[in-house]
Amino acid sequence: MTSALKALPMPLVLVSPSLDIVAGNDAFGRAWAPAGMPVDMLDLIYKDDHGKLSLAVRRVLEENKDQVLEARFMIGGPPRWSRMSLTPVPLSSEDTGCVLLAPTDAEREKAAQLELEERETRWNNALVSSDLGVWDHNNALRRKYYSNTWRKIRGLAPEDPLAASKEEWLQKVHPDDRDRVLEAMERQSDGDPDYAIFEYREQHKDGHWVWIECRGACVERDANGAALRIIGTDTDITERKAAEAEFLRLSRRLEMALEISGVGVFEADFDSGVTEWDERMFAIYGLQGSGIIEIGGLWESLLHPDDKERVIDNVFRNREHEAPFADEYRVILRGGTECTIRSYSKCFVDTDGHRKMVGANWDITQDVLLRRELERAKLLAEARSAELEAAHGRVEHIALHDHLTSLPNRRYFEDVLEAASPIEHSKVAVLHIDLDRFKQINDTLGHLAGDHVLRVVAERLKGCVKAHDFVARIGGDEFVVICTDTGSARMLSNLAQRIIKEIGKPLTYESNTCRVGASIGIASADAGTSARQLLSNADIALYRAKSRGRNCHEFFSQSALQEITSAKHLSDDILRALEAREFVPFYQLQFDAKSLAVVGVETLVRWAHQDGRLLPPDSFLPMAEELGIVADIDAVVLETALADARRWRGMGFSIPKISVNVSYRRLSDPTLLKKLEKLSIPPGTLAFELLESIFLDECDGETLERLAQLRQLGIELEVDDFGSGHASIISLLKVSPHALKIDRELIKRIPQSRKQQKLISSIIDIGKSLGIKVIAEGVETNEHVRLLQQLGCDVLQGYALAKPTPFDGIVDVLTMRRLAELRE
Questions:
Q1: Would you give the end-to-end CA distance of the chain in angstroms?
Q2: What distance in Å separates the CA atoms of residue 388 and residue 382, rounded to the nearest whole number?
Q3: What CATH code would you report for 2-113?
Q4: pTM exceeds 0.85
Q5: In whole numbers, what is the pLDDT of the chain averaged over residues?
Q6: If residue 579 lies in a helix (H) or strand (E), which one and from where to where?
Q7: 2-113 against 131-236: fold identical
Q8: pLDDT per residue as tens digits for the range 11-25
Q9: Which CATH superfamily is domain 131-236 in?
Q10: Could you identify which of 302, 549, 621, 687 might form a hypothetical disulfide with 716, taking C-beta atoms 3.0 to 4.6 angstroms apart as the criterion?
Q11: Per-residue model confidence (pLDDT) at position 779
Q12: How far apart are CA 767 and CA 737, in angstroms?
């Protein structure tokens, strides 16, 4: 086989299933391996074509039939295209054999193919970007084609039906245009060049009229010259026609204004050395006619000697600038009359590259104010066109960029992310960055400082990423980075750490040192992941990073998704439960420390879930706080508790006071007082428990005013969890509560600790000195009761005396106490 191979004149090479070269003749070596025959066929093939060759060899051997493959050889210089015939060659009955490759040069053919594809692509792109509606009337085949753009011009969707006949279609044409359109179509079919383009109005699907420019030509005729095929394009020129109409209106107005005012217009061509004057220019200078005069001739000769040098210098000084300029000078007419001329000129370069100046002159000798006003109107009209064109670019930039940092905005980011969605052989990653402690800077140093921080962060972010990575600000203190060809997870982690380190560096604003951190969520994806899903995954990872304590990064994972999903289900369930009024009050009785008579009841919230479970507050309050509905739960509990208190009184039971917890958000509700007034609460029967850690040392003036208003309504105030380390004597004086509740952790150890007993005694003494009742919660044993009575505590609450129970449980306890009293 090898000797026969070498004897053949065409390039041939025999390769094994693993693409090792078994043998190759001299013709192959000269044409395709001039540097020497390698061991592995892949050493000769361009790396992007390795997979194709491996697959083709495997299929030839598996299917035992020839195949043809296009692949590129690397033989020095750029890759060289070849067309290879692959033929299976069995070596023995016991193996899979080899494959004989016969490559031929396909470089020129491939180049021609690629050039054709490029031209077709360029033509298709040109049609799409030009907004041309393509149509094709093939009378020979009785087929008509209309592109999607053609339909879009008329407001039609691809599936909308078209007119069934020419007569039906003509009903959509403006009545004033129908006869002209029919004639134009007929003349266009005949090949009349004057009708290759015509304009008409057609009714849009929504009812308004669309101006259409129709371009068409007959591309095929029969033996008698009749049109067999006509192809053309339609263009929506509605805006252009409106602009033309507006231009004509302004032109007529300007021409009339010029005519009435006597303003003369000129245009000077510095390259050709001539100036064109209209009739009014000649009249202003006391001459007749209109036409061309030479630069350096007539006009300069009429200038007043005292103004001539200054005026000419002004023209040449401004000829290189395109900003308009004005001048005022005197001229001596041929009759000796002196007149004052006001001129307004503007230099520009025309499409031929000639430096020109256009301007206007008018005689201001008698009526200068009127002439100036007219000239300003003219200049505004001229400037409007240029300004609209310049504004278009500015609007486009503003629409896609953040005004503060000049980074791409969310709209731009979404477009880029959609375009960068993972495709074969590539990867895309999104880093979602949220600044930590940024709100504190805004709150303490103001929004100008915050803006400065955002600009600095934007620059630092751009300095951390590669040139082809994409950085955007998508809102507030949120930024994103899109990385393509991301490599390993370690590389992304290193990038995130670099960003965190750079953003965390201190910066200065007006002598104030500012520090912010960054939490980063990272999501990467292979082919098939949508842009929307990729961003959602990055958001989930960011949530995990912030929940970990911020200033760190997290990768998206399925466990993170599950955590978010569970939190979402819980939040939905809590919102549903609020609507279904599943949050119910439980009550724990409070007792006079000396007599153990019932003096009140504390209202505690529970979740009576629809599945039958009774859930404690710690299972739902943290999520309710995130949802901002703790105040709503407080309101439901308060309303139910007040109703239960009325029922107890109706049953003859005396509970002097009920206490309910109130959240800071609930207290901040501006409608709270009005809502409480409508409840008609008897004074002294309701107390609001204020959590010490929230209400005391951080109480502002507005909060103190709200507390005073509550006291005026007869609602008592109690400080909950007192002694947990947040409050001070000064804060107690500010709030002036009716009672304070000693934290249960302080009560818990008093039977074993003399030190704790002394601490409790001190708190009770402070309360008595300030006229504040002291309530001990967490009273779990009889020993607790005895010691607290000795220490002088006012009210006791805890499991040793009564456990939290629903409405009916309170009824049972109070009934038993009443029966016991009767027996005594």
A1: 122
A2: 11
A3: 3.30.450.20
A4: no
A5: 85
A6: helix 558-579
A7: yes
A8: 999 999 999 998 999
A9: PAS domain (3.30.450.20)
A10: 687
A11: 93
A12: 10
* pLDDT computed for residue 658 by the predictor: 94
Which residue ranges make up each domain of the chain?
2-113, 131-236, 250-394, 401-556, 582-820
Q: Are 658 and 684 in contact (CB under 8 A)?
A: no
Of residues 117 and 111, more confidence is placed in 111
DSSP codes of every residue in 449-478: HHHHHHHHHHHHHHHHS-TTSEEEEEETTE
* 504: CB partners within 8 A, 6+ apart: 515, 516, 517, 518, 551
pLDDT score, position 337: 87
Residue with tokens 């409840």: 679
Choice between 368 and 813, residue whose per-residue pLDDT is larger = 813
* pLDDT of 189 strictly over 50: yes
Instruction: Tell me the three state secondary structure of residue 618.
Output: helix
Q: Are 612 and 600 in contact (CB under 8 A)?
A: no
pLDDT tens by residue, 639-698: 999 999 999 999 999 899 999 988 777 877 788 888 888 888 889 899 998 875 555 555
Residue 20's SS3 state is strand
Q: How far apart are CA 239 and CA 208, in angstroms?
A: 13
- Domain made up of 401-556: CATH architecture: 2-Layer Sandwich (3.30)
Q: Would you say domain 250-394 falls under CATH 3.30.450.20?
A: yes
Maximum C-alpha span of the chain: 137
Q: Which two tokens stand for residue 3?
A: 């000797």
Class of domain 582-820: alpha beta
For residue 425, pLDDT over 50 is answered with no
Distance (Å, whole) CA 498 – CA 621:
37
CB within 8 Å of 108: residues ≥ 6 apart: none
- Tell me which residue has tokens 């490559």: 103
For CA atoms 297, 300, 305, 311, give the dihedral sign: negative
